[in-house]
Specification:
- Helix content is about 65%, strand content about 0%.
- The mean pLDDT is about 85.
- The chain has helices spanning about 1-15, 20-40, 50-55, 75-85, 90-95, 100-105, 110-140, 155-160, 175-195, 200-215, 245-265, and strands spanning about 150, 170.
- A two-stranded antiparallel sheet has the order 1-2.
- It is an all-alpha fold.
Length: about 280
């Protein structure tokens, strides 16, 4: 029952009482929606719900250094992940410096505390994605656009997502647009959580940012951010990233982070930890 008490505390203090961050994130999604809509109108077309998601989660095409073609940072894709990771960065370390430290010593529940924080991290990140999905859905309804996750190749071309598009008239990228970005943020969030009990949270956040930027620059299966870019998926481009491999890889990373964090925290000197 100690786990239930820890988890209730984390949900209340780490999610419910932080509702303002979810409201702020929904405002960010609304801004993205209007920016995407302005792009669509400039090409005299309407976007589907899936194409709005593609605008946010799609990423960028594989960058090949070419004279006269500089690297273009996928700002929206990067900002989406980095905002969520920032919002979930300091809760666990702060709790460890306060109430969490007292409860751990009273109950002896180090592993219970850690597992609760991992579950909180997953639920919290999932909450931000649910907020973004609902916000996009509502905005699409209000704008009377098409409620479909289908993507057309013309949208990919004029939005400069890439020039190696496989031939198709319309494609549904539900898993690639919704589940894979969520899995990536969860796995990176758990990595960040694990690092934050060893280093300062700021250093963990810098590592998260570096991994996102490296994935943007290089299409490499070891850089899991590639799986979270729908434009690099094997359904869209030749030699693209595999959805099943992406799921399995990010699941393995998540489990490794949870186990390594538990082992590390079981031997952790809480009183003498660096603030």
């Amino acid at each position: 029952m100690k786990f239930i008490r820890f988890l209730k505390f984390d949900i209340n203090n780490g999610i419910l009482k932080r509702y303002k961050t979810y409201i702020g994130f929904s405002i960010f999604i609304i801004i993205v929606f209007f920016d995407c809509q302005a792009t669509a109108r400039s090409f005299n077309t309407n976007f589907t719900l899936g194409e709005y998601f593609m605008y946010l989660y799609g990423g960028i095409k594989h960058y090949i250094p070419t004279p006269g073609e500089p690297f273009k940072m996928p700002y929206l894709w990067l900002l989406n992940h980095m905002l969520i990771l920032y919002f979930t960065l300091k809760y666990a370390p702060s709790d460890l410096n306060g109430f969490g430290q007292q409860t751990i010593y009273r109950s002896g529940g180090r592993i219970t505390w850690w597992i609760s924080k991992c579950v909180w991290q997953i639920l919290s990140i999932g909450g931000y994605y649910i907020v973004s999905w609902i916000t996009m859905l509502v905005m699409t309804l209000v704008s009377k656009d098409v409620l479909s996750l289908n993507i057309t190749p013309s949208v990919l071309l004029f939005a400069d997502f890439g020039n190696n598009i496989l031939p198709f008239t319309s494609i549904n990228l539900g898993i690639e647009l919704l589940a894979l970005p969520l899995m990536f943020t969860v796995s990176l969030g758990l990595l960040q959580l694990t690092l934050s009990i060893t280093f300062k949270p700021t250093y963990a956040y810098i590592i998260s940012a570096a991994l996102c930027i490296m994935a943007s620059h290089t299409q490499n299966p070891l850089l899991f951010g590639n799986y979270a870019m729908a434009i690099r998926n094997s359904k869209v481009i030749s030699n693209g990233m595999s959805t099943p491999i992406g799921f399995i890889s990010m699941l393995i990373l998540s489990l490794i982070c949870i186990v390594m964090g538990a082992v590390r925290f079981s031997k952790y000197d809480i009183l003498n930890r660096e603030e």
